[in-house]
Specification:
heteropentamer, A alpha/beta (336), B alpha/beta (337), C mainly alpha (301), D mainly alpha (335), E alpha+beta (590), D: 335 residues, mainly alpha, E: 590 residues, alpha+beta, seven-stranded mixed β-sheet, 27 strands, 30% helix, globular, binds adenosine-5'-triphosphate, binds magnesium ion, binds nickel (II) ion, cell membrane (chain B), ATP binding (chain B)
């Protein structure tokens, strides 16, 4: 179980003493992912998904707020003390090639964390070998053929599985998959998605899935939650299917409208939403962050910032003064 | 050349790359016709030879590759494969606009867009450079950009979506009527992608172009293309009108590909990955069907005989299993749905 | 649905597995000149290690044959002491190569440590160390050496190597740092940290092996640099010497034996000159080969 | 513009600190030099037949210039002098300010090295492009190897070979000094001709030794640029070959310009060997002389001047880059 | 480079064109240096553009012989107490002003600020002048301070550079001569005055005349870093007999450049320059070149630090002397510039023949003789183990020879000696020191066992032996009194015995040497014989070779080169060719 409240992260452009520029990557994000649960973060490029993922995985510090891992608050702890807690959360990188050391065989790659663990728990060398084979099997790889190889001898999908297997060596409670499939061939993507779901079901690992392709979020499990992030703020949050089927925030609606329609299989939604302009970091921070791009901007939007909340008649949390359902997503022809 | 959308007839095109293992074909015996005024989409996984094919349209396959056989007939230009030197150069840009796969980096980082536009004009002997700039501004404005500002910018001052639009502008500004877009939306996020695709569609219609869109994302093709061609291992395995192919894919690869796309709606259990891995230049089978190793309909004949594309109305499929089946009975692909 | 979990297995694994040494051999064979480089380099090492042992100490001198041109008896002629120049080149190589080796080791050890530390720690340490490195890189080396020559005794190879090494690590540090930074960006370092692996493991097992070829190349290059500057300093005659080495030979040949004037001393000049040229050539060829062997593009192919 | 001003301010501050550091280093090195130049002078006078007492007095007079006082006092004096551009008093050239001696020598270094650098730069980049384009051919290979070799071969080896060939064997060009005295200095053909004649070999040597670096750098730069997408994109847009070539050249040369600026910084101290071998009276020559004559002040001054040159060149290189590369100009770092 | 002969304003006779030479005393011309003879890099060329009162010769025995300079003639009092100079009647400066006795007096004043042999403010210095009197505009009289007289007083006076007072007067204050007088006294005031006088020295050294004003045959026209150009001074008193119209001094930093010039036949004259044999052969073969050899009053010896074992034992030193083949050493190290020393006598062979012709044959020649060496070593208690000599206590013995890095002939010699010794079973090594100053410092500090040492510096007898029995061996001459310091103190690094038994008689060589300072030729001879014997048997050094003065001349453009030993090499820093030219010896070749 991991929860975060009011997580803020601001990047200062390094090396520029005189002309420092600040990037407000996260502006007070709350989240909570239950044990064995699933959550997906979606949003445009640069809206802070990766940053949040890295903070959750303990790879990045945060400026404000609190993160609690299994009831232990992280903020008071020193970095060294945080480490064992964050080890329960493992990151799966986007690029499966760079995530593996090209000079080490898969065996070596798996051996290092396992032997560390064996030392901590006083287990034998045989256990290490056994466990290495086990995690590989867990991700659907044949240990016999894979162990001795170097990363460049594996396909993208296999590499990504190895990355996952490596994360499993420390028996994590949560996997953070940052665009874990976007660099994998189309035909293989589903395999990885299914694997993640499978691991959830079988091992009770919770999964945090970061993507800008909303559709993939569905494949993590129907009990998952969807967080729509915009410019460092969560603008809509709720069960995956609810949010996808009935988005209320215009930003979520824009995202969903943008998904290409498989003409011939699907028919487009009736009320697609197109933002007025494209994302521009330099847009004002006043009021609703989406206001400038929002086709439905109301009076309050310009100078008041809507907070994530539940309003009547809307099952999911959202941050919009004027939530309204619109039919934006394409539906299969067969449903007609 | 007329201001008409040209037709393109690719016939038996084969392109090989020189590798340590000898010359290997990245595109093999591809035959494809782009109807004048149509948008054709080519999909295929990484390494299936899409970019190579697209480059062949401009006779621009880069060493160590070369066009080893076949022809590319473009209305008003003739066989591009035979073009050389100045003729070829003039054809590029003026007759064929090409939007680069990595349009993100397709601009000279040291020069403003405007200067590069002028370079382009000079290269093609445009006398009225002012007119060219005007035209460019108009095009950019058409795509929702502030033309004057963009022309005054360097590459690094533009966002990915803007660069992509600049790429399209440069492809069209000389009035080319055949436009090739190689992965126009890869590395862009959803909203920008939707935007670009809309622009492609609109500009195509307004200007009366023949457009070829290359992508690995079926969604993109489905959005924009009239016709769809599916490539696998350097071969065209299936082609036909987009809606028909998507609605009733015949080739097992096409079917697998469509099934593998995560969708927003519908039964998620229906989706599944294709087994195996896409071939590379080295691992693609030299004879027989290129897809057979991942194919659920694999037959003995697939190991030795390369299936010929067989036409059925507007559609072509190159699969022994499908073709033999369709020869006896009519389509029987709905058994699962 | 577990049916989607299809194990991926690679086909023809054995063909993929490439033997590193076979790769080396292939690169070598592609351009035989590289093999020549390796052979020459090995020859120099053997010459420096074994050569002086095979020759009498002190070298026999023939006062009747002073500064002679090359002949059958003395392939490179004799020096102004009547000693065989070839023998001098051989005995002199020990100082030169030992110094070069020491320099290279110090350069690489110091440079790599600082670069690694700086790139790995980042933050304030990085800033301080890199400022320092920049500073060191800005001070022109040869003039500094000339000035140092007045205070420091370069007599033994150790002293010389120490100074050259301590002056030379800047470039390596910078390069290693940028490599470290770029490797850090790659996921596997971050993953290792996330897995709780120790810094020693990360540096020793993950970073260093990835950089090893690069470091090895730097080492070779710093060997050339070391040979260049030490021989140069002796050649300029600003250093005292305790034994004959190539730089001293060059100095004596030009400024004492008049090698640029009289053909008699030509051998005396050409001896060390050829040795330096050959050594440079060998290193250039080997570095060229290494470049290809270790080039990641070739490995990923 | 403000960016440039800001960068300049930062650089100047850092450069200033660095000059102080280098000055301090050179002060302490110079103050620790062992050896007794007075004894040497004395020996020389006695050897010449002067009576020992007289010789002792003469030496005392000559070294009366040497600063005294506590080390700290000397140090502060030295630093204070630095700000007045007073680098102390040379022992071998009493009465002539060190700075004058240095500037006098500097002109003999700057011109030939500048000529050599520019020459090698021009030839190097042209052949570098060629080597890059033909990199898989025999000739490209030969160019690269020759580049590496020339780059690796020590300057003095080249210089010796050049002297051997042109002066000793062929006897076509002088390798001794900077100009023939019989020509009245000034803008007359004889004098200028003599200057050029004497500079040819040093310039040639310098060019040869620098050329390798340029050809290698240019080659790798061009190879990188050739692989850049925008080049192919330009070709696919049907740009003229000449324009594409300009694109390649400009982008490939850009990093080399920085190197050029940096190498111009090394220019002051870069020709030690050449000046020694050709007896060209430049800064390097002066430095060697100062070192062998143990002329503390001169040595420290020469070293300082050479370092300052490098620092300035570093600053210029960076500013230059800022001006020329739009990416840096707008504050985006390119590494 | 090419050359355009600019005939200059040398209207007067002679008829020669450009004369090309080098200044062997000074490598490295300095273009920015002033035309000041006291400036170490000054562009003033003694013999050419700067004049001395007289040009002292290196006579074998008489230090006071000289050729006329600004002084046309002189008279030396029989007891050496005074010298009266008659100036050249029509000597003029290059700006047309006459050279006067006042010029001479001022020049002497300037010499005081710099310290010279005759004009020294050091109290008690031997051979110092007491009074300078301008007798008339053409005559100057200088008396010697007879408290500590020197037989070479006149030499010291004559060897004084004459400067134009109308250019230089500003450097000396008006009360200079009073101050000088005070300085020659005693007490604190004198000390202060001395400081002031010496303090003026800095000013003198730094003084930069706007342009060269010369009383010599030439005047400086211009200098660039590689060359200096002098043109004929038409006011020179002997201008009619000065052959060249221009003189070009070529710059050099190393000997190899001089060889180059010589081989190209470029130099009309060059002073002694060491050259390897085959270079020498090529020089000789070059068109018109001639090598003239003459006496050079210097020798080099291998000196021992007798504070170090086993060199304190005279038998060890003798044993080594028997092992070293000086012929071979000389042939390897300095084939042209030296002749192997016949034996160790402390005197140059040629001078020895003049000074001690009777004693010389009786000296032990130390011919190479391994048996005698062994005998001596045994006497010293050394032991031979496995063909290697070891110290008496059985520990290893290695003869460690030091030399400064730049001194190639010394290094060659040591390398050669090393191989000779090693062959004879004495382990040896050669250690170099960065440079001469450092070498001297460390030598003085007693850090070396064995080093090379210049000796036999003629022609004055005291100068000859003070190198062996002077300050370096513990004897200091303080205000005419000889004091001996213990080894390791006050610069006594040789550490030899204070008394030596010669022919059954104990002598104190330091005191004897000091006595030479005030002895005339006849009185000196027996003392020198004693000292030579002492040196020969005690061997504080092993005399290796006597230098030969080699001059290079070229007969293609000029002729008339002198072959007289004593004028081949003039006094300190003088360019002899300039003297020859002004004497009218050199003629243009027709
Ligand atoms: N190390 C960093 N230093 C400075 N700015 C940073 C850093 N990392 C991220 N940012 C900035 O923070 C913002 C959020 O970045 P983040 O990578 O989290 O976005 P994202 O949603 O993951 O985008 P994408 O979809 O492109 O991966 C961006 O504006 C980015 O430029
Ligand atoms: N320069 C080259 N040298 C060797 N092989 C090449 C080269 N360029 C492409 N190939 C190979 O040709 C095949 C087709 O490449 P191509 O770039 O056309 O594929 P693509 O379908 O565009 O893939 P992507 O989706 O990754 O862009 C691939 O297997 C690729 O490895
Ligand atoms: Mg991200
Ligand atoms: Mg492609
Ligand atoms: Ni099913």
């Amino acid at each position: 179980m991991i929860t975060g409240t009011g997580v803020v992260k601001t990047f200062k452009q390094r090396g520029k003493v005189l002309g420092a520029r600040e990037v407000r990557a996260l502006r007070g994000v709350d989240f909570s992912i239950p044990k064995g649960g699933a959550a997906s973060f979606i949003g445009e490029s640069g809206c802070g998904k990766t940053t949040l993922g890295r903070i959750i995985a303990g790879l990045e510090s945060y400026d404000e707020g609190e993160i609690v891992i299994d009831d232990v608050p992280m903020t008071p702890l020193r970095p060294k003390q945080r480490q064992p807690h964050f080890r329960k959360i493992q990151m799966i990188h986007q690029d499966p090639y760079s995530a593996l050391n090209p000079t080490r065989t898969i065996h070596q790659t798996l051996y290092a964390p396992l032997s560390l663990r064996a030392k901590q728990t006083g287990r034998s060398a045989a256990w290490i070998e056994e466990r290495a084979a086990e995690v590989l099997s867990l991700v659907g790889l044949d240990p016999g053929t894979v162990l001795g190889r170097y990363p460049h001898q594996l396909s993208g999908g296999m590499r990504q599985r190895v990355v996952i297997a490596r994360a499993l060596t420390v028996d994590p409670e949560m996997l953070v998959a940052d665009e874990a499939v976007s660099m994998i061939d189309v035909s293989l993507r589903l395999g990885i998605l299914a694997l993640l779901k499978d691991l959830r079901e079988r091992l009770g690992v919770s999964v945090l899935f970061i993507t800008h392709d909303v559709a993939t979020a569905r494949y993590i499990g129907d009990d998952g939650e969807l967080y729509v992030i915009y410019r460092g703020q969560v603008v809509e949050r709720g069960p995956v299917d609810t949010v996808i089927a009935d988005p209320v925030h215009p930003y979520t609606q824009s995202l969903l409208s943008a998904i290409p329609v498989l003409h011939g299989l699907e028919r487009p939604g009736e009320e697609p939403v197109t933002p007025l302009s494209s994302l521009d970091e330099s847009q004002s921070d006043e009021g609703c962050l989406f206001a400038r791009r929002c086709p439905f901007q109301g009076e309050r939007c310009a100078d008041e910032r809507p907070l994530l909340q539940l309003t009547e008649g809307v099952p999911q949390e959202h941050a919009c003064f004027y939530p309204e359902r619109r039919s934006v997503i394409a539906r299969p022809m067969s449903e007609v | 050349m007329s201001n008409q959308a040209p037709g393109v007839r690719i016939d038996g095109l084969t392109v090989v790359y020189k590798t340590p293992a000898g010359e290997l074909p990245a595109v093999r015996g591809v035959t494809l016709t782009l109807e004048p005024g149509s948008i054709t989409g080519i999909v295929g996984e990484s390494g299936s030879g899409k970019s190579t094919l697209a480059l062949s349209l401009l006779n621009a396959v880069q060493p160590p590759g070369r066009i080893a056989g076949g022809s590319v007939e473009i209305d008003g230009l003739g066989d591009v494969v035979g073009l050389r030197g100045e003729e070829l150069r003039k054809a590029r840009g003026k007759h064929i606009g090409y939007v680069f796969q990595a349009a993100q980096n397709s601009l000279n980082p040291l020069k403003t867009v405007g200067k590069q536009l002028l370079d382009l004009g000079r290269s093609h002997g445009v006398d009225d450079l002012r007119g060219l700039v005007r035209e460019a501004k108009e095009l950019l404005g058409r795509m929702g950009l502030d033309g004057a500002r963009v022309l005054d910018s360097h590459q690094h001052e533009l966002s990915g979506g803007m660069r992509q639009r600049v790429g399209i502008m440069l492809a069209l500004v000389l009035n080319a009527h055949l436009v090739v877009l190689d992965e126009p939306t890869t590395a862009l996020d959803m909203i920008t992608q939707a935007n670009i695709l809309r622009i492609v569609r609109e500009v195509h219609a307004e200007r009366g172009l023949t457009t070829l869109v290359i992508t690995h994302d079926i969604g993109v093709v489905a959005e924009v293309a009239d016709r769809l061609a599916v490539m696998y291992g350097g071969r065209l395995v299936e082609q036909g009108p987009t809606r028909e192919v998507l609605g009733a894919p015949r080739h097992p690869y096409t079917r697998g590909l469509i099934q593998a796309i995560p969708r927003l709606t519908g039964d998620i259990d229906e989706a599944r990955a294709l087994p195996g891995r896409p071939p590379t230049l080295v691992t693609v089978p030299k004879e027989g069907c290129v897809f057979r190793e991942r194919c659920e309909l694999r037959m003995d004949v697939c190991d030795t005989v390369d299936p010929e594309p067989v036409a059925d109305g507007p559609r072509l499929v190159a699969c022994h299993a499908v073709n033999s089946a369709s020869a006896s009975t009519t389509v029987a692909t709905k058994e699962h749905a | 649905m577990s049916a989607t979990l299809i194990p991926e297995t690679g086909s023809a694994a054995s063909t993929l597995r490439r033997n590193f040494w076979r790769g080396v051999w292939r690169v070598m064979r592609r351009k035989p000149s590289r093999l020549v480089g390796v052979v020459i380099l090995a020859g120099f090492v053997v010459m420096a290690v074994v050569g002086p042992m095979l020759l009498p100490d002190p070298l026999p001198n023939d006062p009747a044959a002073i500064t002679r041109p090359p002949s059958w008896e003395h392939w490179l002629g004799t020096d102004p002491q009547g000693r065989d120049v070839l023998a001098l080149v051989i005995t002199g190589s020990r100082y030169v190569l030992l110094t070069a080796a020491i320099t290279a080791v110090i350069t690489v050890v110091v440079g790599t440590s600082i670069g690694l530390f700086s790139g790995f720690k980042r933050g304030r340490w990085d800033t301080v160390l890199m400022r320092l490195t920049d500073m060191k890189l800005t001070i022109p080396g040869l003039p500094l050496l000339l000035v140092l020559a007045t205070v420091w005794r370069f007599g033994s190879p150790w002293q010389m190597g120490l100074v050259l090494g301590l002056l030379g690590w800047g470039g390596v540090a910078r390069a290693v740092r940028s490599q470290t930074l770029s490797l850090r960006e790659r996921g596997f370092i971050e993953a290792a940290r996330g897995l709780g692996l120790s810094t020693t493991h990360i540096i020793g097992k993950e970073l260093l092996p990835s950089m090893a070829p690069y470091i090895a190349m730097n080492m070779l290059i710093s060997v050339t640099g070391a040979v260049y500057s030490q021989v140069g300093l002796f050649f300029l005659g600003v250093l005292p010497y305790e034994s004959d080495n190539w730089g001293v030979m060059l100095n004596l040949a030009v400024f004492q034996a008049g090698a640029l004037i009289t053909p008699n001393a030509l051998g005396y000049l050409l001896g060390p000159l050829m040795a330096i040229l050959l050594l440079t050539l060998a290193i250039v060829l080997v570095v060229d080969a290494m470049d290809e062997i270790f080039n990641p593009r070739l490995r990923e192919e | 513009m403000t960016l440039i001003a800001r960068r300049l301010a930062g650089h100047l501050a850092r450069g200033f600190v660095m000059i102080l550091v280098v000055a301090t280093i050179s002060f302490f090195i110079v103050n620790n030099i062992p050896g007794d130049p007075m004894a040497a002078r004395y020996e020389k006078l006695v050897e010449g037949g002067m009576a020992p007492e007289a010789a002792r007095q003469a030496v005392k007079v000559l070294y009366g210039f040497q600063p005294d006082g506590s080390l700290w006092q000397q140090y502060t004096d030295f630093m204070a002098g630095l700000f007045r551009l007073d680098l102390g008093v040379s022992v071998t050239r009493p009465g002539t300010p060190v700075l004058d001696v240095l500037t006098d020598a500097a002109k003999w270094t700057v011109l030939p090295v500048l000529a050599g650098t520019l020459l090698s730069f021009l030839v190097g980049i042209i052949l570098g492009v060629y080597a890059a384009v033909k990199r898989s051919g025999k000739l490209g290979d030969a160019l690269s190897i020759s580049g590496s070799l020339l780059h690796g071969v020590p300057q003095y080896v080249l210089a010796l070979l050049v002297v051997m060939i042109f002066s000793t064997l062929l006897g076509v060009l002088p390798a001794d000094g900077s100009v023939d005295i019989l020509y009245e200095p000034g803008w007359n053909a004889g004098y200028l001709g003599s200057l050029v004649e004497h500079a040819l070999l040093p310039v040639l040597t310098y060019a040869l030794s620098a050329y390798g670096g340029w050809i290698l750098a240019m080659k790798s730069s061009v190879v990188t640029v050739l692989g850049d997408d925008f080049i192919l994109a330009a070709e696919l847009r049907g740009m003229k070959r000449s324009i594409v070539f300009r694109y390649i050249a400009r982008n490939a040369i850009l990093p080399l310009f920085t190197m050029l600026a940096l190498s111009l910084g090394l220019l002051l101290g870069g020709a030690v060997f050449i000046e020694k071998i050709f007896n060209y009276p430049g800064l390097g020559w002066l430095l060697i002389g100062a070192v062998t004559e143990r002329d503390y002040a001169l040595m420290g001054g020469a070293f300082l001047l050479i370092t300052v040159g490098t620092i300035l060149a570093n600053i210029v290189a960076d500013l230059f880059y800022t001006v020329i590369d739009p990416r840096v100009r707008s504050g985006e770092e390119v590494s | 480079g090419g050359s355009t002969n600019k005939s200059g304003d040398a209207a007067g006779g002679g008829g020669g064109g450009l004369f090309t030479t080098i200044d062997v005393n000074r490598p490295g011309l300095e273009a920015s240096a002033p035309a000041n003879p006291y400036n170490p890099k000054g562009n003033s060329f003694p013999g050419y553009s700067s004049m001395k009162l007289g040009w002292v010769k290196n006579h074998l025995t008489d230090p006071n012989q000289a050729l006329p300079g600004i002084a046309a003639s002189w008279e030396i009092a029989p007891d050496n107490s005074a010298i009266t100079l008659k100036l050249q009647p029509n000597a003029k400066w290059s700006d047309g002003k006459p050279v006067t006795a006042e010029d001479v007096k001022m020049s002497i004043g300037i010499a005081y600020t710099q310290g010279s042999t005759a004009f020294s403010v050091t109290p008690g210095a031997a051979g110092a002048a007491a009074e300078v009197t301008v007798v008339d505009p053409q005559t100057v009289k200088i008396t010697q301070d007879m408290a500590n007289p020197s037989p070479k007083f006149a030499r010291g006076v004559l060897d004084t550079t004459v400067l134009p007072s109308h250019v230089w007067s500003s450097v000396l204050p008006a009360d200079f001569w009073d101050k000088l007088k005070a300085a020659r006294g005693e007490g604190a005031d004198a000390e202060k005055a001395r400081e002031e006088v010496t303090g003026l020295g800095e000013k003198v050294i730094a003084f930069a005349p706007e342009k060269d004003v010369s009383a010599g045959p030439f005047v400086l026209e211009r200098v660039n870093p590689s060359e200096a150009l002098l043109v004929k001074n038409k006011y020179f008193f002997n201008a009619a007999n000065v052959a060249p119209s221009q003189v070009k001094f070529l710059n050099y930093t190393g000997n190899e450049q001089i060889w180059n010039y010589l081989i190209a036949g470029k130099l009309d004259h060059a002073g002694f320059t060491a050259a390897p044999t085959d270079v020498m052969n090529r020089i000789k073969q070059a068109n018109g070149n001639e090598v003239i050899k003459g006496y050079s009053p210097v020798a080099v010896g291998m000196a021992f630090n007798q504070s170090k074992k086993p060199y304190d034992n005279v038998h060890v030193r003798r044993g080594l002397a028997y092992l070293i083949d000086r012929e071979q050493v000389t042939q390897v190290a300095s084939p042209e510039g030296g002749t192997a020393a016949a034996t160790t006598s402390g005197i140059h062979q040629k001078a020895a023949q003049a000074w001690i012709p009777d004693t010389l044959p009786s000296l032990e020649p130390y011919k190479v003789d391994a048996a005698k060496a062994e005998e001596e070593f045994k006497k010293a208690g050394l032991t031979k183990k496995d063909g290697k000599w070891a110290l008496a206590d059985g520990s290893a013995w290695k003869v460690s020879m030091h030399a400064p890095a730049g001194f190639s002939d010394w290094l060659s010699a040591q390398e050669n000696i090393k191989s000779q010794l090693v062959k004879a079973g004495v382990d040896a090594e050669v250690v170099t020191t960065a440079d001469y100053p450092l070498y001297l410092e460390e030598l003085n500090a007693g850090k070396y066992d064995v080093g090379f040492w210049l000796m036999a510096l003629g022609p004055a007898p005291y100068d000859i032996f003070q190198r062996l029995y002077g300050a370096s061996n513990g004897w200091a001459n303080v205000a005419g009194k000889v004091q001996h310091s213990a080894p390791g103190k006050n610069g006594n690094w040789m550490g030899g015995p204070e008394e030596i038994e010669v022919g059954g008689e104990k002598i104190n060589p330091g005191e004897l040497t000091a006595k030479l300072n005030s002895s005339d030729e006849e009185a000196a001879k027996p003392i020198m014989a004693q000292l030579a014997q002492a040196a020969n048997q005690d061997l504080p050094v092993i005399q290796l070779w006597d230098y030969v003065n080699t001059q290079f001349v070229n007969n293609s453009r000029f002729t008339g080169w002198p072959h007289d030993d004593s004028i081949l090499r003039m006094g300190t820093g003088v360019l002899p060719s300039g003297v020859w030219i002004q004497q009218g010896l050199i003629k243009a070749k027709q």
